[in-house]
Amino acid sequence: MPTDPARPSTKPAPGAPEMPPKTAKALRRYRIAAFAEGVALFILVIAMVMRYVFDQRWATQVWGPIHGVIFAIYVLFSFDLGYKERWSMKGILAVLVAGVIPIVSFVAEAWVSRKVLARQRI
Q1: Which residue, 41, 76, 86, 101, is the most exposed by fewest CB within 10 angstroms?
Q2: Which range, of 9-18, 25-34, 82-91, averages the lowest pLDDT?
Q3: Measured at the alpha carbon of residue 89, what is the angle toward residues 83 and 92, in degrees to the nearest 5?
Q4: 50: Cβ contacts below 8 Å, ≥ 6 apart
Protein backbone atom coordinates (compact mmCIF):
# COMPACT_ATOMS: atom_id res chain seq x y z
CA MET A 1 0.00 0.00 0.00
CA PRO A 2 1.57 3.34 -1.00
CA THR A 3 2.14 5.93 1.69
CA ASP A 4 0.72 9.41 1.57
CA PRO A 5 3.58 11.97 1.42
CA ALA A 6 1.42 14.52 3.26
CA ARG A 7 1.13 12.19 6.28
CA PRO A 8 4.58 11.44 7.67
CA SER A 9 5.24 8.04 9.15
CA THR A 10 7.01 7.56 12.45
CA LYS A 11 10.20 6.47 10.72
CA PRO A 12 13.10 8.95 10.61
CA ALA A 13 13.74 10.79 7.36
CA PRO A 14 16.40 9.28 5.08
CA GLY A 15 19.82 10.55 6.09
CA ALA A 16 18.58 11.89 9.43
CA PRO A 17 20.18 10.70 12.67
CA GLU A 18 18.40 7.88 14.47
CA MET A 19 15.59 9.03 16.73
CA PRO A 20 15.88 8.01 20.40
CA PRO A 21 13.06 5.69 21.53
CA LYS A 22 11.84 8.22 24.12
CA THR A 23 11.49 10.85 21.40
CA ALA A 24 9.63 8.42 19.14
CA LYS A 25 7.16 7.66 21.93
CA ALA A 26 6.75 11.37 22.74
CA LEU A 27 6.11 12.11 19.05
CA ARG A 28 3.49 9.36 18.87
CA ARG A 29 1.73 10.73 21.98
CA TYR A 30 1.89 14.28 20.60
CA ARG A 31 0.43 13.24 17.23
CA ILE A 32 -2.51 11.50 18.91
CA ALA A 33 -3.09 14.46 21.25
CA ALA A 34 -2.90 16.97 18.37
CA PHE A 35 -5.46 15.01 16.38
CA ALA A 36 -7.75 14.66 19.41
CA GLU A 37 -7.40 18.39 20.17
CA GLY A 38 -8.24 19.33 16.59
CA VAL A 39 -11.39 17.21 16.65
CA ALA A 40 -12.34 18.39 20.16
CA LEU A 41 -11.93 22.04 19.22
CA PHE A 42 -14.04 21.56 16.11
CA ILE A 43 -16.77 19.96 18.22
CA LEU A 44 -16.51 22.83 20.71
CA VAL A 45 -17.10 25.33 17.91
CA ILE A 46 -20.22 23.38 16.92
CA ALA A 47 -21.32 23.34 20.58
CA MET A 48 -20.84 27.11 20.80
CA VAL A 49 -22.96 27.62 17.70
CA MET A 50 -25.63 25.41 19.24
CA ARG A 51 -25.51 27.47 22.43
CA TYR A 52 -25.51 30.96 20.99
CA VAL A 53 -27.62 30.43 17.87
CA PHE A 54 -30.06 27.77 19.02
CA ASP A 55 -29.95 28.51 22.79
CA GLN A 56 -28.84 24.98 23.66
CA ARG A 57 -26.78 25.62 26.82
CA TRP A 58 -26.22 21.92 27.47
CA ALA A 59 -23.89 21.69 24.46
CA THR A 60 -21.13 23.79 26.00
CA GLN A 61 -21.86 22.61 29.53
CA VAL A 62 -21.18 19.04 28.46
CA TRP A 63 -18.46 19.52 25.87
CA GLY A 64 -16.56 22.43 27.46
CA PRO A 65 -15.00 20.41 30.32
CA ILE A 66 -14.24 17.48 28.01
CA HIS A 67 -12.43 19.80 25.64
CA GLY A 68 -10.57 21.34 28.59
CA VAL A 69 -9.16 17.97 29.61
CA ILE A 70 -8.15 17.14 26.04
CA PHE A 71 -6.46 20.55 25.67
CA ALA A 72 -4.56 20.06 28.95
CA ILE A 73 -3.28 16.71 27.66
CA TYR A 74 -2.29 18.38 24.37
CA VAL A 75 -0.32 21.04 26.27
CA LEU A 76 1.38 18.40 28.44
CA PHE A 77 2.42 16.26 25.46
CA SER A 78 3.55 19.33 23.50
CA PHE A 79 5.82 20.37 26.35
CA ASP A 80 7.08 16.80 26.72
CA LEU A 81 8.07 16.57 23.05
CA GLY A 82 9.44 20.11 23.06
CA TYR A 83 11.62 19.34 26.08
CA LYS A 84 12.95 16.12 24.58
CA GLU A 85 13.67 17.81 21.24
CA ARG A 86 15.00 21.04 22.79
CA TRP A 87 12.59 23.31 20.96
CA SER A 88 12.96 27.06 21.22
CA MET A 89 10.43 28.99 23.28
CA LYS A 90 9.07 30.43 20.02
CA GLY A 91 8.53 26.91 18.66
CA ILE A 92 6.73 25.75 21.80
CA LEU A 93 4.48 28.81 21.76
CA ALA A 94 3.68 28.29 18.07
CA VAL A 95 2.62 24.70 18.75
CA LEU A 96 0.51 25.74 21.74
CA VAL A 97 -1.21 28.54 19.81
CA ALA A 98 -1.98 26.04 17.06
CA GLY A 99 -4.04 24.13 19.62
CA VAL A 100 -6.46 27.03 20.15
CA ILE A 101 -7.24 27.84 16.51
CA PRO A 102 -9.71 25.45 14.88
CA ILE A 103 -8.16 23.10 12.28
CA VAL A 104 -4.63 24.52 12.77
CA SER A 105 -3.60 21.73 15.15
CA PHE A 106 -3.79 19.33 12.20
CA VAL A 107 -1.39 21.54 10.22
CA ALA A 108 0.91 21.94 13.23
CA GLU A 109 0.96 18.18 13.81
CA ALA A 110 2.15 17.55 10.25
CA TRP A 111 4.75 20.33 10.54
CA VAL A 112 6.04 19.09 13.91
CA SER A 113 6.18 15.48 12.71
CA ARG A 114 8.12 16.47 9.60
CA LYS A 115 10.62 18.50 11.64
CA VAL A 116 11.09 15.88 14.35
CA LEU A 117 11.50 13.05 11.85
CA ALA A 118 14.10 15.12 9.98
CA ARG A 119 15.75 15.72 13.39
CA GLN A 120 15.46 19.50 13.02
CA ARG A 121 14.77 21.92 15.86
CA ILE A 122 11.59 23.91 16.01
Answers
A1: 86
A2: 9-18
A3: 65
A4: 56, 59, 60
Which amino acid type is present at position 15?
A: G
Specify whether the CB–CB gap between 25 and 19 falls below 8 A.
no
Which residues, in sequence order, are CB contacts of 22 under 8 Å at separation 6+? 84
Q: Is 110 exposed, middle or buried (0-12, 13-18, 19+ CB in 10 A)?
A: middle
Neighbour tally for 60: CB within 10 Å: 17
Rounded to whole angstroms, how far apart are CA atoms 8 and 116? Answer: 10
Which tens digits make up the pLDDT trace of 32-81? 999 999 999 999 999 999 999 998 899 889 999 999 999 999 999 999 99
What is the reported pTM? 0.82
Q: Minimal CA–CA distance to 87: which of 79, 96, 75, 76?
A: 79
3-state secondary structure 52-93: HHHCCHHHHHHHHHHHHHHHHHHHHHHHHHHHHHCCCHHHHH
